[in-house]
Amino acid sequence: MIKRAKSWTLVVMMAFFAELSLAAEGVALAKDMTAVIALHGLPCGQVVSVKRQGDNDHIASCQDGNRYRVFLNPEGRVVAQKL
Q1: If 0-12 CB within 10 Å is exposed, 13-18 middle and 19+ buried, where does residue 48 land?
Q2: Within 13 Å, how many C-alpha atoms sit on residue 60's CB side?
């Protein structure tokens, strides 16, 4: 019984830390999107949410209400288009 409790505790802890890792990735992605939009000279303030559309293709929502599609074009350049 004790072995089961220990293994269950391990599984719960692994799930918790995996969730924390995903949350940290989300924060890092929002910061990256904020920087990309700012470097393009577009108004945003700060990205508050990011939705993944596909590989290297995201929809970023800003605190000021603007939304942008941030993606790689065929030439490999990062593009931010206002939606």
Answers
A1: middle
A2: 32
